[in-house]
Write a structure and sequence with these properties.
Shape: elongated
Helix content: over 70%
Number of strands: 0
Strand content: under 5%
Structural class: mainly alpha
Number of helices: 8
Radius of gyration: 24 Å
């Protein structure tokens, strides 16, 4: 514990006495500051929700590359990872499952890491940022050395978008006890 100086303790006591003596009266300035902070906390911006979701996705997606290659990027450590199981269903289904794995895992985790107010904000906009995250992910994978053809890209995108929307919605429903 930091020892207080007698002067600072006296000032603290004067401030505390003034606070106690205010008998519930709060200045308009303090009231406005508190009201604005509560309003901000209860109504996060879509930009804030997107940034938080993108950060979560970047971390989870990078970890997912440990188990599932995406367009030739990963799995870290070599081998086919989950792709071996997905290819049993054929190349088209593998692309769908890979997209679903890549964006679905991070969307599910996002639903459990966002605050309830942030989940509600995301839902209010119909999870409009999911396509943006899918697009940024695809660009990052291509810049990371990935290659693909148009059909694989479309199928991967379908899997990523459906899983992204679906798992985020599922997680939000579980978290909030109803549809967000």
């Amino acid at each position: 514990m930091i020892p207080r100086k007698p002067d600072s303790e006296k000032k603290w006591m004067v401030d505390f006495s003034a606070f106690v003596g205010a008998s519930g009266a709060v200045s308009q300035k303090v009231s406005m500051v508190i009201r604005n902070q509560v309003r901000s906390d209860l109504n996060p911006t879509l930009r804030h929700v997107f940034a938080k979701s993108l950060t979560i996705h970047a971390l989870v997606a990078t970890l997912s590359l440990l188990a599932c290659p995406q367009f030739g990027v990963g799995p870290l450590g070599g081998g086919m990872g989950l792709m071996r199981a997905y290819m049993v269903f054929g190349q088209s289904w593998c692309a769908i499952f890979c997209g679903a794995t890549f964006l679905g895992l991070s969307s599910l985790l996002t639903a459990f890491l966002l605050r309830p107010e942030e989940i509600r904000r995301a839902n209010r906009y119909g999870y409009a940022y999911i396509p943006a995250i899918a697009t940024l992910s695809f660009v990052a994978l291509m810049l990371g050395g990935g290659t693909t053809d148009l059909l694989s890209f479309i199928l991967w995108s379908v899997g990523a978008l459906l899983a992204g929307w679906g798992f985020l919605r599922l997680g939000a429903t579980v978290r909030l006890g109803r549809l967000a």
